[in-house]
TrEMBL record:
The species this protein was found in: Amnibacterium endophyticum
E.C. number(s) listed in UniProt: 2.8.1.13
Catalytic activity reported: S-sulfanyl-L-cysteinyl-[protein] + uridine(34) in tRNA + AH2 + ATP = 2-thiouridine(34) in tRNA + L-cysteinyl-[protein] + A + AMP + diphosphate + H(+)
InterPro entries per UniProt: MnmA-like, MnmA-like_C, MnmA-like_central, MnmA-like_central_sf, Rossmann-like_a/b/a_fold
UniProt keyword list: ATP-binding, Cytoplasm, Disulfide bond, Nucleotide-binding, RNA-binding, Transferase, tRNA processing, tRNA-binding
Protein name per UniProt: tRNA-specific 2-thiouridylase MnmA
Role, per record: Catalyzes the 2-thiolation of uridine at the wobble position (U34) of tRNA, leading to the formation of s(2)U34.
Region (Interaction with tRNA): 148-150
Amino acid sequence: MRVLAAMSGGVDSAVAAARAVEAGHDVTGVHLALNRNAGTLREGARGCCTIEDALDARRVADAIGIPFYVWDFSDRFAEEVVDDFVAEYAAGRTPNPCLRCNERIKFAALLDRAVALGFDAVCTGHYAVLRIGADGGRELHRASDEAKDQSYVLGVLTAEQLAHAMFPLGETPSKAVVRAEAAARGFRVAAKPDSHDVCFIPDGDTRGWLAARLGEEPGAVVDEDGVEVGRHGGAVAYTVGQRRGLSLSRPAPDGRPRFVLEVKPASNTVVVGPKEALAVVELAGARTSWAGSAPDGLEDGIACEVQVRAHADPVPATARLVGGELVVRPTDPIAGLAPGQSAVLYAGTRVLGQTTVDRTARASPAA
């Protein structure tokens, strides 16, 4: 097959590209330039997509003997991921930019261009497994290494996208094995630290980054009864479940800590309350996609597991379609779930699909 290997400059995509070559595929490497500031270097950065990352990717491509290109997707990334991230926070929601990047850049923009150029598949260094299902279509499954499993952030992929995806690391038992293989191949990235946090906020200061773009307007922090218990410097930087940095002037009657229960941008208000008020007993979303065919029986409800964060434990649940919404009820409440997060459904190790959470119902809702 003709394979386009997406090479971030990290160790995972380097080894994935090398394995694709060894499997006999005709591989071409490509690094996506996602940062509009082309002068960015890695020094002090915690993300990815720097000039040094592009150079690291090129060195690996040279070492394994494949053609290599840099494609400028910075405008598309800014519009589809960065602008979406800002808009979601401005609306009081908590987005997942890595999931959006996979959905709209790596497996939409990149895959569309790859297919148009005659490539059969896009290869990435994600830790996930593709299997052939009973209907002959591809299924997305968890990786062998549970600690590195990235099926959650790939939960947005459709059947058509899975048909053109390749994840050579999915069955690898650990990241240590990948690093050892990279070292044996002579890759300089063998010991390169993993990127983390939001890649376009390299210093990790999400609150400051948002404030610079959305401004900071002081407002009220209120309890579940609407009584003002403090002031904030800008509601958009707060997230559901947050405990620290609330600047409360009035303690709770029982003296226990308070947590953010809701962010209301329209009134510039942050609602706080006790930890038990974070317990979500139902979530629903209209922006739903399926990793293959939609499961049978959704109108009546299906048994599944739901995962709401990349490294959260899955929770047994039931899911059903109601008036265009996917409504999910976990058997045990989920703490601190915010609108904007993605709820990915599983059946065992298989990813069924996902929905972006539009609303939640709590056991003890805020007023």
